[in-house]
Amino acid sequence: MEAQRIRDGVKFMQEGDKASSKGLFRKPDWDVAAGCYERAATSFKIAKSYDQAVQAYAKTSEAFFKAGANHLAGKAMESAALILTQNLGQPQRAAEAYQQASDLFMTQGSIDRAAEQLEKAGRAMETTDINAAIEMYSAACTLYEQEDRGRFAIDVFKKAISLLIKSKKYEKAIDMLQRQSVILQKMVSRSHLHKANLSILILILAIGDEVEAGKQFHIMCSDSGFSQSEEAEICQALLQAYEEGDQELMEQTVRRQHVNFLDNEVARLARTLTVPGEVLSSGLSGTSSVTSSKLYGSTNGPPSHSAVRGNPAAANQSQRPTNGASSHSSSGGHIPPQPMSPAQVRAELYSRPPPRQQPQTQPQQPQEVEKDNTRGVEEDFAELRVQPGPKPVAHVPAPAPAPVAQTTEDDEDDEYDGLR
Fold it and tell me: Which portions of the chain have biased composition (kind: Low complexity) (predicted)?
């Protein structure tokens, strides 16, 4: 069946070539040739011979153009572009065919159809050449704007803006949004206009131009409808966070519900906004955890202020550097429970080789062991102070001496006179 269709298509192509050729006594009949070529394209398409079908449609379009039927010529090229897109998977050739169809519709005066072909060309080029797709979308929007039919270009604007944000061309995206805002003002579509204004401010902040963002916000607030909207409050909060350097306020603002109502790419970009000199909270938390593990030797971080106030001894132990004994304890070494003398403690500390550092699974255990060792040393020193030498002999009071008679000066004189 397919072979027969192909033979029929070849026969129709021959008839079309004959009708389009110039003879000695006749002129080319382009109407007849266009009909033959069109039947040949249909036969090739049914037979799934898509390359031959594209060639037949191209000749059909040329014949209609020479016959003065530009609209039919554009439709033929559109059919060829559709086969190239859906059946052959050749977006570059399909985009060229759509552009030719757009030009043919333009010459006929069908502006809407011409812009529609450019939109299809941009859609075909999205997977291969984003810049070319953006140009196609922008050209389609321009045609709608020139004919004052911007209401048909809203979806095209959204596609162009999405691609511009993906490729990080924020300035061009802002220009497209401003063009879209002009159309929305004419359409008196307040909700869509407020979303467009908020999107413009987000893109300006993404560039980092705080001054321009403030100017645009004042221009937007000249519209009383926008100044009283939820989008205006979000814009004001974003500017305040950017001016004060408040990253927390920025993150809270971009998580509000009306930001999620924006286009996907704009909402995704809003979540990446940061104030000058700051990064996102997720990045900060990751950095702080890494830094605390390097400074304090574990992921627990520094001791809390409440722990220091409630237990100063525990705070001192947490700030004391880890010594060999605590490392030995954490690595599984046995520490005798009985207290040791100062000489034994020094011998134990200086004779033991430095142990291999291992992650502390129980950071409180070394502190308790060290605390016990310190208490043992203090007890030993207390014993040394109490017992410095041999036990002293108990002191026995001596008997009181006999009273001695006290002599006066008169008694001495009498004794002296007796001797004389």
Answer: 280-293, 358-367
